[in-house]
Write a structure and sequence with these properties.
The structure is a single chain. Helix content is 4%, strand content 49%. The chain is mainly beta.
Length: 334
């Protein structure tokens, strides 16, 4: 057979037999969970158009994406315990691949950096479900110290997982290597929501909707080293991917609070719209995408230009958007 024909056939076969849903890192998508309409809006961020409206189970809460670009993952809350799920969708086709039964009321799902494990916080079950990928089987259930685990974060080396416990006002630290669980105390009255972590894993940050603060945690010492007042009801807090800043949506302040990590101060308050909740960054950190859960008649997403700290635009999605994730971007949990 002619060598040119062989090469051509090899190229065609490589397309058909590639990993399911895999895309190159140049492909861009945003995923927005609409809890009020049981759907995920799939958005092309280059023109901010909705390319698909994907139906989910009842009351989807949070979304995250596979670092390899194969899948996006959705937690489904407040159903019968047997229906508490992480739903797995193919990035290429936006179709449901499978559903995995987890502990009661799964809140957040975070993949590890290899894409081979998913970590799911079960808010009502006070457990952590560990799911293998691509088998999509629960391989371990970890009983946490504290109650009400929510927006957890993985350390960059993959060794530890830190989970804020909203009902007991503390943070669980899971050693994934030695399978032990520790706990970090927070100030009295704390209701921790979500966490972020620096790229070196030394400092973690947890939002506190009880005290309207963000707390800085020394990961090695397992202590709170400083606290800072922000807006009312702060939610998600991934660290900016290239600079030492936190952009914190504060739901009852209709604003995002920009916090300078090095100087530990609020640098700017950015009005964005009603009920800001979820946040994700483009891969280069130029844009932050913030869900506006209380906008009417439909929810919206604000696009913040992080070079000017101003809202570039907002666009409509569906009812009550909470979680948001950027394919190949920086999302809650890392």
């Amino acid at each position: 057979m002619d060598k040119k024909i062989v090469l051509w056939l090899a190229m065609i076969l490589s397309v058909f037999f590639a990993a399911p849903g895999a895309f190159s890192s140049s492909f861009q998508r945003l995923y927005v969970v609409n809890e009020g309409s049981d759907s995920v809006s799939v958005i092309d961020p280059t023109n901010l158009s909705i390319v698909a409206d994907v139906p989910t189970g009842s009351r989807p809460h949070y979304v995250n994406v596979d670092p390899e670009g194969r899948y996006f993952y959705v937690t489904v809350l407040f159903t019968r315990e047997s229906d508490d799920l992480v739903q797995v969708f193919d990035v290429k086709t936006n179709t449901l691949v499978t559903s995995v039964v987890t502990g009661h009321q799964p809140a957040h799902v975070v993949p590890d950096r290899t894409g081979s494990r998913l970590y799911v916080s079960n808010e009502a079950g006070t457990t952590l479900s560990i799911i293998s990928v691509p088998e999509f089987k629960v391989v371990e259930t970890v009983k946490l110290k504290g109650k009400g685990p929510h927006g957890h974060v993985l350390t960059p080396d993959g060794r530890f997982l830190l989970t804020p416990n909203g009902r007991s006002g503390d943070v669980s630290v899971v050693d994934l290597v030695h399978q032990t669980v520790d706990r970090i105390k927070l100030p009295s009255g704390a209701k921790p929501v979500s966490m972020g972590i620096t790229s070196d894993g030394r400092l973690a940050f947890v939002t506190d909707a009880g005290l309207d603060q963000v707390h800085k945690i020394d990961v090695a010492q397992r202590t709170v080293s400083a606290s800072l007042s922000v807006g009312k009801r702060p939610t998600q807090v991934p660290v900016h991917p290239t600079r030492p800043f936190l952009y914190i949506p504060c739901m009852e302040s209709a604003a995002v609070y920009k916090v300078d990590i090095n100087n530990w101060k609020v640098e700017k308050v950015i009005p964005v719209g009603q009920g800001p909740h979820g946040i994700a960054y483009s891969a280069d950190g130029r844009y932050a995408y913030v869900t506006l859960s209380w906008e009417k008649p439909k929810g919206r997403v604000a696009v913040i230009d992080t070079e000017t700290d101003s809202v570039r635009t907002t666009f409509a999605v569906n009812d009550t958007p909470y979680g948001v994730a950027a394919l190949f971007g920086k999302n809650q949990g890392w």
